[in-house]
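Fold these two proteins, one after the other.
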Amino acid sequence: MLLPNLVPNRLEAGCDEVGRGCLSGPVTAAAVILPADYANEWINDSKKLTKGNRERLTEEIKTNALAWAIGSATVEEIDEINILNASFLAMNRAIDALKVKPEFLLIDGNRFNPVYDIPYECIIKGDGKYASIAAASILAKTYRDELMANLAIEYPAYGWERNVGYPTKIHRLGIKEFGASPHHRKSFRLLPE
């Protein structure tokens, strides 16, 4: 069972992002404030859950959270400011969109560049330690996966409905055969040397 909060009864927002290692699509983050007494044994790092479990938990999280929000940084922003800064931008956008202002932020990872005056702590592998970060990882992943599946309808050559933009063999074959789409990150090496 993941820990509910770092400090009991403090409004803590867990924040995580997905899509940093992708060749296409936005980088997407979510921020989630869970009630202090909330517990759900199924909530875990989104990478350890099946697609069906993530989708069921998404509804559960949205229903029970005190607040939740999604933020993204576009392919153009990724190319302009680099993927790390775009990840921070997506996280800050998610935090800004929360309907309840958190008193503290739990950030998954080892670095963060805040734009708001909210104290925070970076937690390596936080999505496997704190329920609010795990919840954020689930919301960000289900949102981004659905977005990529929808883009795959218009751009079927890359297999995004399955690889969601990660550099798989099918994705790279699509780039080789059809070139890059408008949703590819031009600052990334799309094909091996």
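Now the second one:
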Amino acid sequence: MSKKHLLPNSTIGIIGGGQLGRMMALSAKAMGYRIIVLDPTVDSPAGQVSDEQIVAEYDDRRALRDLATHADVVTYEFENVDYDALADIEKIVWVPQGTELLSITQDRILEKAYLESCNINIAPYAVVVDEEDIREKIKGIGYPAILKTARGGYDGKGQFVLREESDIEAALPLLRYGSCVLEAFIPFEKEISIVVARNGAGQVETFPVSENVHVNNILHTSVVPAKINQDGDEEAHAIAEKLAEYLHLEGVLAVEMFVTKSGALYVNELAPRPHNSGHYTIEACSISQFTQHIRAIVGLPLLKPELLKPAVMVNILGQHVEGVNKAMGSYARWFVHYYGKKEVKRDRKMGHITILTNDTDAVLQDLKETQIWD
């Protein structure tokens, strides 16, 4: 299939109807493209802003082929897409992100092995399949350590922190899901991430580095620019660019990293799609991660992202909705984004707020004083 750029009125298929798909669709619609979304939830967040939604499970081969035959290009908004089903539709429609990248990033064991092969710094780890494995391999890794399922984890799900030997018993249920990764805990000072984009012509562009804070393993705030030294900033960009090239990326990729006290960077995780920590780009940059992703997958040249103003992004989870709704009338600087999810649940990502500012510390203090996020 030709990789020439797709013209407006061409159709983009999106597998996944959540908030990332929604924001992809909004960017694509602004550029004149038509959108078909596949998602099992009727009136999904992405479906609400698209031309059509196919209501079906992500591994429904017939529905995926239907999506493929009606789309000129297909993208996905999350990693837990059925690999074989995606490989099947690659025969009939262009899928720029491809199946190789998906296979690497949806399996922590493959991802870590791949990062090692690229000489990327990662935490020491071991693959474990049973209790005996854990007890043997923890001797080399030491406490604290983190046991992670190889597949299917997100927002801290599928993880258990082992602080001492007595914790092993409580962590064993994770092994029901298959092989796991036992990973050394890195004593980090900061968590950072960077979004990189690459198109089929090989053009690579990176976004500014964000500094992230997680609460209960869910992203709470992202602050841009990250408060790291110039060497660390340059290294983060270099790592992202290296991975984009090695993976033959087409689209955007988020790279999450730990920063230690000495300034060393350890790559923690890859996400082959737009990322929660990149939401600030909608208002704070000359191009958003979503528009850059669409440009990459339709074969257009990429724009070099520029940070227009420092920013703070804060997530709105289910327990924050009532407080945000009451307070938003008092804060003119809040860019409030809601995702159109019908059911409000605790710890469910319902939206986010971005605030442009010359004083990110003052904004973080203001957010704290609202007591919404306590």
